[in-house]
Structure formats: C-alpha cells, structure tokens
Amino acid sequence: MPARDVTSWFQDQALSKTLEPVRKFTIGSSDYSGFVMKWPKFRRTSNDIRPKNLTIQLANHNQDLNFFITDKTLLTTSYTIEMGFTHPTSGDELITMFSGKGQTVKYRDNKIDITIVDKFKQLSDRVIGSSDVPVEYLNSNYLPSDIAWWLVTSYGGYDTTTSTANIDIDWDAFAEWASIFSEGSVFVEARFDGQRVNEALRKLGRQTSSNILIQDDKLTFFRWTVADSNTTAFDSSNIKDVELEVVVDDVVNKQFVFADYAPSSDFFQISVVDQDSSSVNSFGIKEHVEEDKNVWHVNTVSALDLAQRRTQVNGEPFNRLKIESGLSGIQRFIGETVTVVDSHLALNEGYRITGMEVDMNVGQINFMADRSQYFGAFTLDVSTLDGPDVLT
Fold it and tell me: Is residue 313 predicted with pLDDT exceeding 90?
C-alpha cells in the first residue's frame, strides 16, 4: 500500500522537531482557518467501520458564522481539514487529515462548535432489506468483493464508477482486494434482513479477514498479504516514545468456522476447525467461533481459509506498539509497513500500521502498529485433513 504522494521537501519538513505545521479548515470552497480557536483530535483504526466524527471550535465574535442559523442545508456541504507546511517559494503543501459533512452546530457566547462526520455516516444511515423482505445472495458462489460493491453502491448510495474517477471508493485498492478472492476462489453467500450497510460491511470484513476504512475521503479495502517494502523507519531520530504491549488474551489457537448456512432450516451444513498445536502447548486452548447468519462461506475450502488465517495471525501474542512520532510519519497510511528500531526494547523489525491518533492542535501523530499483521503471504494448507484440520 503506497503512502500519500508528497514531495521530498515535505518529507524533510515532517522530520523537523521544531517546525510549526500549517493547518487549514474549509467549508465548501471557503477558507475559515483564521476563525479556528482549537484544532481537533481524532482516531482511526483498520478494523472499525463506525462513523468517525470530530468537533472543531471557531470564533464567532462578529457573527460571521451565523449563516447556519438561516440556511440549515449548509450543514450538508463538504468540510475539509488539512495540515502540512509552507514552502518558501511555492506556497503551502497540504494533505487532507479529515473530511466529511456537518452533523451538528452549537452556538455558545462568541464561539461555535461544528461537529463533522466522515463518509461512513451515509452507510450507517441506510439499511438492507427487512425481516419481511430480506435481501438475499443465495444459491450461487459470490465473491466477497461483489457483495461489498452491491452493498455500498446499490444500498449505500456510493458512486458506481468502475475506475479511479470514483469519488467515493478507492478503485485501485478495491480492484486489488477483489483479485485476492477471485484468484483464491473464496466464495460466500449472504442474507440481510434490516442490517445497516456499515454493519453488513463489518460482517463481510470479519468473514474475510479484511480491513475496510476511510482514507483520503474514500472507502478503501485491503487484506494483509505479502509485507510491503518498508519505506519508513521509526528510530531515535523521529520517535519521541514507544510503548510496547503484549496481550495473551489476543491469542486464538483453535478457530471454529461454520459455513454453508441454510436460512430455510436455520442450519449450518459445514463446520471446520483449525488448531495451532504449538500455541496450545504454550498458552493453553484459546478458542474462537465464527458463526454468522448474514454472511457465510459456501464450502470447506473457503471456511478453512479463514480458520487457518486466524490461528496463524493470532497463534501467539505478538508485539503491539504505540509510537509517538511528532509529524514524522504524517504522510503514512494505515496498512503500510514500517521498520521500528529501539535499542532499549531491542527492536529492529517490521510492523504494520493498524491505526493512528491525530492531535492537530499540538501537531502530534501517534501510530498503532502490530507485529502479527506484518508477515508474508498466507497459504491455505489442507493436504493433511487427518491432522488438526477437522471438517464435518
């Protein structure tokens, strides 16, 4: 997954520990940066499909922002918050940190608080089917990507353009994600009877070990496969602090997956289980069950792909890091891989960025990085079905 496209000059400025960043806030095409009293904080992770919002506080001493009172439709316009640096000759070079539409406006004394919500809000406002008239994808082998596309376009109202011109969906990322399932013959069926679109996406993401999130105001899809080349190193030159956490409760070494659900009889006709014997010997049995009546795998190979992937990724308590880095990684995306070097913790290894916390007021970005999500391509191995892989 590539980083944001910025110049080498921008990258050099991001490494500075004393440089003050430039911040910009626009409502539609109008710049209101000079009204901002306090820049917001927000957090985004790779596995949370709920709408994200933030609140930005602006001065309203001269009633310049009273237009919301008379024209409520202005809440539905686009809001963008950017951050970057000012080049001495070519002007500002900025990247979008958060964008969305207005949710609430609160006037108090000479101040105004505007709450902005991201693109997931549209998906959380819409439902798929009902208990009386469910939406069904049955009696066929559907690629998970096909169902995802129908969910966000037919029911979510997103742009249907199948090219990089799509204004709502990162087409390149989606196409790459879809190719994983077509090449691996991973098939699912689904039945929705009133779930919200973002909840249906969450279920689809769980069944396929996928990550679905908003980046650069577009819905993006990816699944950890081969680790990317590490274009960024977090080390003593750009790390303020590192917090390392190891959580045994994260371990899953025996994964059950139920598949081939028959809605008419309310019965799963396939069940598989994969067990990591080495992990069981070290940490005891830690079981997890994946059973979903809205999205399910249609055959044993697809179900076992998920079961083995879970035990491989979660078979041991891998290192999780929180990296305080100022703005040195401002151009990085969730999903990228980085090398983390810390002599005190004896770290010099690759990690996958799984989240970030941004404090625009102080110019600080904290990254969450996970070692379990770093490793290379997963290969389904069902050659020895009399081993720990059990199918019924």
Answer: no
